[in-house]
Design a protein that fits this description.
The complex is a heterodimer of chains A (283) and B (171). Chain A has 283 residues and is of the alpha+beta class. Helix content of chain A is 31%, strand content 28%. Chain A is globular and about 105 Å long. Chain B has a single domain, classed as Arp2/3 complex 21 kDa subunit ARPC3. Chain B has six helices and no strands. Chain B is mainly alpha-helical and 171 residues long. The chains are: A alpha+beta (283), B mainly alpha (171). At the A-B interface, α2 and α3 of A face α1, α3, α4 and α5 of B.
Chain lengths: 283, 171
Amino acid sequence: MRNLFNFIIRNSHWLLAALLVAFSFYLVFTQNSYQRSVYLSSANQVTGWFYSISNDVGAFFHLRKNNQLLLERSAELEKEILLLKDRIDILTAADSVEVGDLVPDSLPVSQFDFIPAEVVNLSFSGANNFITINKGSEHGVKPDMGVISSGGGIVGVVSVVSKNRAVVIPVINPKFRLSARLKNSENYGSISWDGTNIGKAQLQELPKHEVFHEGDTVLTSFSRIFPRNLVIGFVSSEGRSRDDNFNTFNIQLATNFYTLQDVLVIDDTYYEEQKKLEEMLQQ
Amino acid sequence: MKLNYIYEIVLFVVLILLQVLLLTRISLFGIATPVLYVYFLLKLPVGRNLYYVIFSAFLMGLIIDIFLNTPGMNAAAITIVAAFRKNILGLFFEREGYDDFVPGINTAAGPFVRFTIFMVLLHLTLLFFMESFTLFNLKNTLLRIATSSVVTIPLIIALDSLMYRRNPGEQ
């Protein structure tokens, strides 16, 4: 009996280790990234504070480059304005077209609002990529909102939100799924990431008859989270399919995650309404 | 002795910050990431209370997990390494060493390097296999373990020789 007690006392550190490891495993298996606690994620106050300091320093070094990008973007928009102005001029100048056709009866309510945010942290060291942004519930960010980059490419979906921070599950996370289509052929597929390359994702479940064209634009299709026709990326090569019934293409993502700084969170005014309506049917 | 504890707390904090703010963002060729914080376990005195070793390692892993949004993964890996630390020490160092003996490049270069290699490999193997629960890709996982070890081990040895040069009086 005394030997037994001695044995237990001598080896009780194994017990402590086993308990702690069991607790860790409990966290690994229960904390699914779609329903994890705010305190155990980088959306909490303390980690957010550390990250925003380190980001302020980092942002300083990116200023020049971001300026450049903004200039390019504004030039692009400028061009678009000119183009549209020209078209209005042509249309109004023609006798046969009445100007009234161009003016809507009532002002349309815009369906999408954009909340600008800054990336304060991003990790892409493996299977569990995420992005932390500096806007939270205080600024109107809610779980399940879409996030796009300032250049227009899609980034991911908001997962956890605290008062001033939100964690985004990016396209380059194995848990991310999104329905997508090819611009030219209107065929639908599903976007996912195989975990190997941060610049590339896979477009799966395309119909077998879909022909591979390098450089085809991949756009968002029906989704509760993203508006239609946002650019996801461009077809770069043929991928390996899981079975013979479908085609898989590798796509080059439009968003460069290495230099991601400014993002826009999409606030869909009709999100709740549509969700409620669709859930009613499922019941 | 008191000085030792202060030194360890500073090391604890610095390694966590270094890992979450800097090293995790490094991804050489998209696969190799230095994982330096296991250095904390290398630098604890040989005879340090096992509960202290295991619990501080767990705490470190958990804090890193919270920063990196990987609940439990780093904590589980580093706790397992901490639990076996004493047995691994026995493999590389003389048993009759003093309890206050701190492994280091200055105290015993050869055994310390072998000890580092073993600990880093064990830690990274556990860590990356745990990560791959969600994404199973054996070839990629093995490649990540190998390349990350190749980056981490020289970094630890370089760091240790630097520390030694800066305060030669410290144990």
